[in-house]
Amino acid sequence: MHVFVTGATGWVGSMVVQELLGAGHRVTGLSRSREKGQALAATGATVLHATLDDLDALQRAAGAADAVIHTAFNHDFSQFAANAEQDRRAIEALGGALVGSSRPLLVTAGVALLAPGRVATEQDEASSDPSYPRRSEVMARTLRERGVRAATIRLPPSVHGLGDHGFLPILIRTARETGVSAYIGDGRNRWSGVHRLDAARVYRLALEEGVTQPAYHAVADEGVAFEELAKIIGRRLGLPVQSREASHFSWFSSFAGLDMAASSARTRELLDWQPTEPGLLEDLDQPGYFA
Questions:
Q1: In the CATH hierarchy, which top-level class contains the domain 2-155+196-217?
Q2: How confident is the model at residue 116 (pLDDT cuts 50, 70, 90)?
Q3: pTM, two decimal places
């Protein structure tokens, strides 16, 4: 299968490329950086030098592929609304190239806000509330209504592994800067997690299974209490572990206090997927996260 992958040099996308190539698929990967594009080419992938704003290039690449995986997203939270709109346009362009065919499109989204206060499942439907700017999953649903075989791979708040530049490093940096490893309230709000190598296998298996479901959950740890994350960070840094008001986390408080538990039972059954990499707590409790 020839697969076009956006975000092919990113944290998740690079592992998706590795997983696809290892299984014998051909990959064309999107890269906006010449330097990263060279590294991508060295893996055996074909490189498309473009950005998510190059909609014509995205459509041509999607039109030439047997399947499309969209992992790219600009995670600069200071421009979240603009980045979400860029993502919406890109998905619309990718899907437009697939209308009238049976070629699949996998879009990436998250489990946050799916089911606050309970464990989210694959059967939960993402809200179409216009107050939330990111429309990745809503766009996938719209494309399905147009006959595109589109589905969403939902990722947990922590897609971890050494070299992580996501939410766990933010918590570690906050602890260093404030002198305390904190949690909000009683610290029982839950974060789900997955190692990025395990996540990459979900993308491949979903493609090979035929993309028969609207949503798949690449979730290994269903829900780890936030306090447990704070305890490991505190022990590793030699800092006290204490409850704090949400404001302690500044702009990150809305994420730190969320309850984001999610099940992947349906995905495991359908894809015969079992995570094999270290879990969230085991992975965090490594010197490499604190180097």
A1: alpha beta
A2: confident
A3: 0.96
User: What is the token pair recorded at 242?
Assistant: 């204490």
Fold of 159-193+221-290: UDP-galactose 4-epimerase; domain 1 (3.90.25)
236, 285 in Cβ contact below 8 A? yes
Residue with tokens 């799916």, as numbered in its chain: 114
Cα Rg, the chain, nearest whole Å? 19
- The domain spans of the chain are 2-155+196-217, 159-193+221-290
How many angstroms from the chain centroid is the CA of residue 72?
9
Q: Where are the alpha helices (DSSP H) in the chain?
A: 13-22, 34-42, 55-63, 80-96, 136-145, 167-178, 196-209, 226-237, 253-256, 265-271, 280-284
**Mean of pLDDT over the chain:** 96
